[in-house]
Each structure stands twice: as structure tokens, then as C-alpha cells.
Write a structure and sequence with these properties.
The structure is a homodimer.
Chain A: H1 3-23, H2 35-51, E1 57-60, E2 67-72, E3 81-87, E4 107-109, E5 112-114, H3 122-135, E6 145-151, H4 161-167, H5 169-172, E7 176-179, E8 183-184, E9 191-196, E10 198-207, E11 213-214, H6 215-218, H7 225-234, H8 257-264, H9 270-277, H10 290-295, E12 299-308, E13 317-318, E14 321-330, H11 336-350, E15 356-361, E16 368-369, H12 375-388, E17 393-397, H13 403-411, E18 415-417, E19 421-422, E20 433-435, H14 436-454
Parallel strand pairs in A: 3-6, 3-7, 7-18, 8-19, 9-17
Antiparallel strand pairs in A: 1-2, 2-6, 4-5, 5-20, 9-16, 10-14, 10-15, 11-13, 12-14
């Protein structure tokens, strides 16, 4: 066992305790009330990056939440440079959503760390930080130069990151970019992502009467906006489960038989799907398997909807307004701008004259593809093999990481999606968790990866 | 001008100030957090009833919120007895719903008192209390015996009132029951209600996955419950605006040409409807005018719906659950139990196997009809004529007052629906208001009514 791996073994409990401290900061980027916490998490990371020997470490303000940047260039000009990306912001979470522990009071139970952000993405970026700490223990040199880029806006669409990357090409220049913000289907079989879906989001609002009305006095003469919005939403999918927006699938490239066969290896069985989701019966686009529907096909999802009185009790109100939050996952060759307009136009077209509808589009993200034949990918394969004792398989993921295509286009560097989470970690849901064994293997695998790139 | 009417004139400012005190109590019956306020409002009313000379006055506990009861039997056994009904509980209200003033900090602006409950129903029951105070000023006797029955659960379906009425037939026995909990189309033309719609309410819940999931990882394979609920709601009406539940209209009696002609007199014009509602275009059951849709035909309304993340910002969640609150307004000859089952069965039938649906029915209220040929109604017509200087017209109302049919069946007494509100008072919505002139004319009209009944 190398000195670095010995260090991991000796300090692992301390690493966990440090991660707990980071997880206690409710850095929810979508909530203005938590702006101070987001800032606090940035400071915490900057302090730890300095402690493990990066220099300089900066907290760089953006028009939104700050970016934490730190580097160690001590391997020299001839050595390779790795840019490591992660995010310190998290999704909202309330105990009342169904959490066992308070989401920002981490607990270890049955080999898992339970807390919002434990897997997505604090635990994963921290894995790299502890790999760097271990490899540089006692003043040792790392075989590669290291750059950390940790943003605070991933959960709200990485609003200011693309501009930052474009404006700082020289600063961020690297031979390979590593992104650890994804999951594997299971902890025994390592896997590497090579495709991510893109994302577009939009806010739909439907207005009826000018104010809430008494449903007894006016009900039956006003088109209820909750009902009207439901009628619109019901027309977004065909009865067979496919998306009904005209042109939605037009630019999707068909899956080759070869790719379908490879994907089949990490495909989710109906019984595992049922066990993980708890849903009564699978649903979705006809002609595609579960893992194809979630990973290789575009989807349209209602992330939330509300209107009228929906608290306990009853209020016989005819609401003035209803609203929904809609997102689409996109696959390669689909243009976020084009699809956003298609959905917007379709919604406006099917909205009746009895209500007033608005559709506000947010900036979208393209789907990403990674070339799996590069030398950097070979280094990653080797690192996973050493970390797990098993060759990794390749897979597609349904989620979106906006920065992938920015790195590819702006930095012209290969991207490795080195996820240490698991698909059932419950990212974005209640009881999000990070497997302790994934944390440990992740640190060791990251060390192997730095060594393989530097070799 | 009689002594009672002189008293009204001299004390009207004081009456208003007392009403403001009552309106400051947020007696929201649907919220457990406000149970103390509901109790406080009951005590406030009991105190004022005692002050104006009723005896005994009781605050009678129920399994829910208490009933306030008080009587004055000083007119003697040979005199007639009037039972006056109202309610002191109110609908929920938050300034953020669009109120100009705090809903429980009453304000007078442009001849209207703005506060939750000002019209529905504190202002209206208080109108009778001030009429009694005025008629009995300086120890004068009233020409009739008086009983006040003021409940605290009208806004949650008068849950415990029917049992109370049935168990207290002797106590409540009266020659005529007066209910002041409704509105007129305009303040210049007095009108008397003779028909009210019934009401059924139900809670629909749709469940998908066991917990909230990441929409990128599972979206496209799980039937999103918000989408599924929208699909269910969209099937509750036909595209033409009629209710799609099979059998919904089966027991509805057709409107006679005669009745349609009479109703036409208080019918709402398209331009007034547009002005009052602010909605872009009228909607509803084909073949019926606006006032028929809202007053004489049954309807099905979505009072609220929610699911997923609907706060500001975005959360790419695949929600585990969505829920809606649905109510139907019923007309004469429709059985609440039968219609509830029809709607429940229909929803369960159209719910797909990819989700789990529950429909919880609450107790319903029958529609009510009042015979307009009774002597008591003649007394009411006379009172309105004196109060307004104009003969009242007869009309139907879309709202529901559960107690009407209970009074009719249990007390076997004629019911007079003597509403002093206006249809555009904004009951149940933001900026609810009560016209000061309606309050003044209402007190005078109530005095004329007591005198006419006692004559």
C-alpha cells in the first residue's frame, strides 16, 4: 500500500467528520433565504483547500453565488494538469418531506451518511479533496498539477459558470477535466458515464379571474385556472406515454443495436425498478426499456404544480391562478433553445381563450457525450480497476451536468465523468445518502487516477 | 322615524366600531392554529348578546367549534318567535393573497369595510344584533320573541349543526327562521333568495413512487403523479364545459320557461360578469346563461391542487404525490351521497394502474328551496320595501348554506334568506368587504321585518 493509501486508512474517520461539518451548512442555492449559508459553504471549502496545500485559493464572486477556485501547480510545467469540478450547493430539503433525520444534521446509519448534499455533490467533491490531502501528506509532491473549480449554482442551472469558463480559459487550462457528480447502478460494479442528458426548464402560469372568487357565486361561469392548467398538462403526453409536443423527437438520433446491447449491461430490471421507486407499475415511452427511457430518450416532466387552497381543511374558492414547473431532459443533437420554443408554442397553442397563459423559459443545457477512446479514459479505467478490483462498464445517465459541454468546447479538454454516488442515493429526494464504502473507494480511486495521469 | 330607527342613526358609528372589534378576531374554523381565536369570537358575541339584553346567553360546546345561543322571550307566549341564524367563523386569509390591508385589521375605504368576515358572515349577523339593540333601546319591548343561533363551523360544512338542531327542536322552535348569509346582485335593487345550491367536497390523492425521486434518474419511467392527477382532472369536464361524470345531471329538474324569465331579471350581463370577475372570456355549460350556470345548474370545481416543488426557484424532482380538493354545487333533487359516489367511482375508474388514487368524501349538503308564498315572506317583502323604498325581486344563489334544509325539516318553520351582502363583496377571496350602506339599510330592514312579523 502506498503512503497516500496508508494516509487514507489512518485518517478516514477524520475525513468523515469533516464531511459532516460541510453537510451541516444548508447551502440551498435556489432559496434567497439561504444565500448566507451558500456563502458560508464556499468559505468552508476555501479554508479546507488552503489547509491541504492549494495556493492560491479564491472565492470568486459572480452575479449569483460564488465560485471556489484553488490550484497546486507544484508538479511543474512539464507535468499534466487535472481540473476537478464539483458543486457545493444543494437542493432544498425539509424534514417534513419524509426525512428520518434533519436533512442538515448528518447521521451515519447502516454504512451510509444521510444528509442533503451527501451524495449530490458535497460528498463527491470532498472525495477528491481528501485524495489530494492524502497524496500530498507529509509534504509529498503530487504527480500532476491540480485545479479545483467548485461552483454554487449547479442546482439552479449553473447560471454563471459558462461565462466564467469562457472568460477564464487560460486559468482553467488542463489536460483533463474530472467531474464527480453522478452515480453508479450498484456499489460492486464500477461504471463510467459517457453520456448525460441536457435540461430545459420553464414556468407556466394560468390566470382566470382577477382575484380568488367564491366558488358558489361564480363557479360554472369562469374557467377555473387549476382545471385549465390540468387540461393543458394532460395534453403534454399522448395516452401511450410519449411526449405530445409536435417535433419533440425530430432531432433525436436513433439508438444503434450495438449501443442498446452495451446499455443492456447496466440496465435496470423491472423488479429492481419497482423496488427502488416503489411505484405500482412502470410507465413511459413505448418501445424502450426502463434504462433507455431514463437515460437515452428525451422526457418531459412536471416538477411541481399548485393553485387554489391545498392546505389541510377546505376552502370553496375559485382560484385566480395556477402554476406549474416543467422540465425536459434532452439527448444529443437536441437543441435546448429549439425544444424550449416547441414546448412553449405548443402550450400557448392549446391554451383556450377563456384563460390567460404565460410560459417563461429558463436557459437550457445541451446533452453531453464523452469520447471513450482517449488515453485519459484509459487512465480512469485503470484507476477504477485498482480501486474496485474490477473493470468498469460504460453507461448513459438521465441527469444533466451543464458544465460538461462547456469544458468540452471552451477548454478543449477531454472530460471524465467519475461518479462516486449510487443511483439510489436519493439525490433531490428525502433521505439522500452517500455510502461510506463509496467515499473510501472513491478517495483511493481518485489517487490511482492522479497517479495514472501523471505516469 | 320610529325610536328604533332614531337609535340606529345616533349610534351607527359606534356599531361600526364594534363590528371592527369583531372583525379583528381571526376566527378561521378550518385551521387548528386558530381554534383559540374561534373560541374568542364566540365569547365576544356572547358578551354583546348579553349586553343588548338577551338572556340566557350560552356558549355551547360541540365536538368542533362552539355554538353561541341567546334568546329574548319577553314578547310573551302569544307573540311570534324569530330564530336568527348566522356564523362567526371565517375563511382563511393572508395579506399575501392580494389584500390591500391586513385581512384581520379592518379598514373603511370608499364606503366599504374591508376585512375577512366583513360580509361573510360577521357583518350580516351583527346587522341583526344591532337591529335588536336598537329596537330594545331604553328598555323598549320588541314585538316578537328573538332567538340567535350563531355557529362557528359554517365554512367547514356546519359539521355539528344538523345534530344540534335535531337534538334541540324545542329550544329552537320558532315561527320563522331568518338566515342572513348571502348577497344581492346590487345595492340599489333589493332581492330575496329562494334557492341555494347544495355542496359536496372531496380530497383526491395520487401516489406514484414511494418517495420523491431525481427527475433525471427516474423521469420517463414513473408515471408522475402531478401529471396523472392533471390527466384525471382534465377528464372531469367535457370539452364543452359540462361535467363529464356519468349520471351527474340525471336527477336535475329542468328549469321552466317561467322560472328562466323571472331569473333573467337578476341575471348578470356578460359585461358585468367580465367587470366583476376580470376573467378573459365566459366559460361553462352550453345552453345556459351566466346566472343559470352559477345559480340553477350543478357544477364541479377544483378548489385547489398541489404536488412537487412549486415555490420560487426550481427543483428537478419527480414528486411522489399530488393532491386536489374538489367540490360540487348541487341543485334541488340531487342527492349529495349519490353524486359523491358517482364522482368518486368515476375518478377511480379513470385512474390508471401506473398510480394509486384515493378519493375521500366529506359529508354533503342538499340544495335548498324556499316557498315564496308564505305570510312570513310577505313580511320580508314589506320590510325590504320600507328599507330600500323599492320592491324586492326573487333570485337563486349559487352558494350553499347547509342549515337551510335542517331548519326546514327539523323545525318545520319557513326560512327567509335575508342577505345583506353584495355578490361582489369578495367573500372567500382577498379584499372581502361589506358596504357601509348595506350595513345601515340592513339594520333598518331587520327592524321593519321584526315589526311586520310581530304585527
Amino acid at each position: 500500500m502506498s503512503q497516500a493509501h496508508e494516509y487514507v486508512k489512518a485518517h478516514f474517520d477524520q475525513f468523515k467528520s469533516q464531511l459532516f461539518d460541510l453537510l451541516r451548512i444548508p447551502s440551498i442555492s435556489t432559496s434567497v433565504d439561504h444565500a448566507g449559508d451558500v456563502q458560508r459553504a464556499a468559505q468552508w471549502l476555501a479554508d479546507d483547500l488552503e489547509r491541504i496545500g492549494l495556493h492560491p485559493v479564491e472565492i470568486i464572486p459572480t452575479a449569483g453565488h460564488p465560485i471556489v477556485y484553488g490550484e497546486w501547480m507544484g508538479a511543474g510545467l512539464d507535468a499534466k494538469t487535472i481540473l476537478i469540478y464539483g458543486h457545493y450547493d444543494v437542493q432544498p430539503a425539509l424534514k417534513s418531506d419524509g426525512w428520518i433525520n434533519e436533512p442538515f444534521e448528518p447521521e451515519e446509519r447502516d454504512g451510509h451518511i444521510y444528509a442533503r448534499g451527501s451524495s449530490d455533490d458535497k460528498g463527491q467533491i470532498f472525495t477528491h479533496m481528501k485524495a489530494v490531502e492524502s497524496i500530498r501528506a507529509n509534504g509529498a509532491k503530487a504527480p500532476v498539477n491540480l485545479k479545483f473549480l467548485i461552483e454554487g449554482e449547479e442546482e439552479i442551472g449553473s447560471t454563471h459558470l459558462a461565462d466564467f469558463v469562457a472568460a477564464n480559459r487560460d486559468k482553467l487550462q488542463a489536460d483533463v477535466c474530472v467531474i464527480s457528480d453522478s452515480g453508479m447502478p450498484n456499489s460492486e460494479q464500477p461504471s463510467i458515464l459517457y453520456a448525460l442528458r441536457g435540461l430545459i426548464t420553464m414556468d407556466v402560469e394560468v390566470f382566470g379571474s382577477a382575484t380568488d372568487l367564491h366558488s358558489g357565486t361564480y363557479g360554472g361561469s369562469v374557467h377555473n385556472p387549476v382545471q385549465a392548467l390540468a387540461e393543458i398538462i394532460a395534453q403534454l403526453h399522448k395516452p401511450d406515454g410519449s411526449v405530445a409536443v409536435p417535433g419533440f423527437y425530430d432531432d433525436v438520433l436513433p439508438l444503434s443495436d450495438e449501443e442498446r446491447t452495451e446499455l443492456q449491461k447496466t440496465g435496470m430490471s423491472e423488479s429492481l425498478w419497482r423496488q427502488t421507486t416503489g411505484a405500482p407499475k412502470q410507465w413511459g415511452e413505448p418501445g424502450f426499456a426502463i434504462h433507455e427511457r431514463t437515460g437515452a430518450r428525451p422526457t418531459l416532466e412536471i416538477n411541481g404544480m399548485a393553485g387554489g387552497y391545498f392546505e389541510p381543511g377546505f376552502k370553496t374558492v375559485l382560484p385566480a391562478k395556477a402554476w406549474a414547473k416543467i422540465s425536459c431532459r434532452l439527448v444529443a443533437n437536441q437543441d435546448p433553445e429549439v425544444i424550449s420554443r416547441l414546448v412553449q408554442n405548443y402550450i400557448m397553442n392549446i391554451s383556450p381563450a377563456t384563460i390567460r397563459t404565460t410560459v417563461e423559459i429558463s436557459e437550457g443545457t445541451r446533452a453531453a457525450f464523452v469520447d471513450i477512446r482517449t488515453p485519459e479514459m484509459q487512465a480512469a479505467i485503470q484507476a477504477f480497476e485498482k480501486g474496485w478490483g474490477k473493470k468498469p462498464v460504460f453507461m448513459r445517465e438521465g441527469g444533466s451536468i451543464p458544465v460538461v459541454s462547456d469544458f468540452q468546447s471552451e477548454l478543449n479538454a477531454p472530460v471524465i465523468l467519475m461518479g462516486f454516488g449510487l443511483n439510489d442515493d436519493g439525490a433531490h429526494g428525502p433521505n439522500e445518502h452517500f455510502m461510506v464504502e463509496m467515499f473510501r473507494k472513491g478517495i483511493n480511486t481518485a489517487i490511482y487516477f492522479y497517479e495514472a495521469i501523471g505516469a
